[in-house]
Amino acid sequence: MINENEYSIISSLPLFDGLERSILEGLLEHSQPRSFGKGEMLFHRGDPADCFYILFDGWVKVFRETANGDEAVLGVFTRGETVAEAAAFLGRGYPASAQVVDDAHVLPVLSGPFRRNLETIPDVAMNMLASMSKRMHHLVMEVEQLKTSSATQRLVEFLLSRCAVEEGPAVIRLPYDKNLISQRLGMKPESLSRIFAKLRKLGVKTEQNQVVIMDVAVLANDFQAETLSQRISS
Length: 234
Description:
9 helices; 3-stranded antiparallel β-sheet; disordered C terminus; alpha+beta; 2 domains; single chain
């Protein structure tokens, strides 16, 4: 049974933006929340894409195995994000694998019934297009960041994107395996530790698997000012 807090998360997603509660309930009538333990697989690459996932809690990594057996982490997802909706809409196999890296509570949404609703509810179809467009824009921005931004810039932007507020204090929970974050941001684990140490002067501190930001607005403004100063002096 989907509770009120979970409905609040669902309604905040671009895919469901502006939809009435009755429509949401109809779209999700075949879906029930599930909990997965650390290490469990949501799906493997090549499996039929019979559902996509809404994350209520925890962390999930999406990855592909390379030719030499290593893992290439394509994304790390957490509360308030969706996984594999594009693959589910296309009705093909999953192009990558997804594994729970911290205990997760998710909503698997069956793709078949959902796709059929696209034919009768135009708002959902439009939201789907808008959501895919935003995801594509986000991916383009990520590629640009990897090519043009420093490691510090990538980490700060990652943290700011996961803050629920624009000013005041914020706490961000990270996966226990912080190597995932360094992989996701295209840096070495030791670089991640050094950057977190450097960010203490901007009001950022780590406590086990949490990042505490004293003031989100101050971090954003101070970092922008410091970056501009570095550019001017270089």
